[in-house]
Amino acid sequence: MKKILVPVDGSESSERALEKAIELATALKSKLTFLYVANVNQLAVNSCLSSELLEAVSKAGDVVLTHAEEIVPEGVESERVMETGSPAPVIVDAAEDCGADLIVMGSRGLGLVKGVLLGSVSQYVVENAKCAVMVVK
Fold it and tell me: Which residues of 108-121 are buried (b: 16+ CB within 10 A; e: fewer)?
């Protein structure tokens, strides 16, 4: 497990996943990639988004990613990635793009629609990712 992808959104579940991913990366000497996905699909009423809205979403992502980077212990390599789109497929694609061996994510995020057992995003990632997925409750 040399590369661990950690989707983060600022939720409590995401925070627990972040802590678990850091614990694993420290023990395994893995590189962490923190991914924030600006879910513009939930925000868009029309097909065009205002620049102010996109800027606000970007700032929110920066806050979440900065927090993730700040709690990584010295000696653990990490990077940050911000994407826009529908979170579930973006996470699966990002895992492939960065060559992740493992995705560590929360069971529920800040999304408006929730699944029955797992959040709809985590369920999709478990079913579609080509690498191992750890869902943290």
Answer: bbbbeeeeeebbbb
Superfamily name with CATH number, domain 3-136? HUPs (3.40.50.620)
Query: pTM of the predicted model, to two decimals?
Result: 0.88
What DSSP letter does each residue of 55-89 carry, written as one string?
A: HHHHHHHHHHHHHHHHTSPTT--EEEEEEES-HHH
What's residue 80's pLDDT? 97
Contact by Cβ (8 Å): 37, 85 = yes
Average pLDDT, whole number, for the chain? 88
By residue count, the chain amounts to 137
**Spans of all domains in the chain:** 3-136
For residues 136 and 13, is the Cβ–Cβ distance under 8 A? yes
For the chain, the DSSP string reads --EEEEE--SSHHHHHHHHHHHHHHHHHTPEEEEEEEE-HHHH-SSS---HHHHHHHHHHHHHHHHHHHHTSPTT--EEEEEEES-HHHHHHHHHHHHT-SEEEEES--S-SS--SSS-HHHHHHHHH-SSEEEEE-
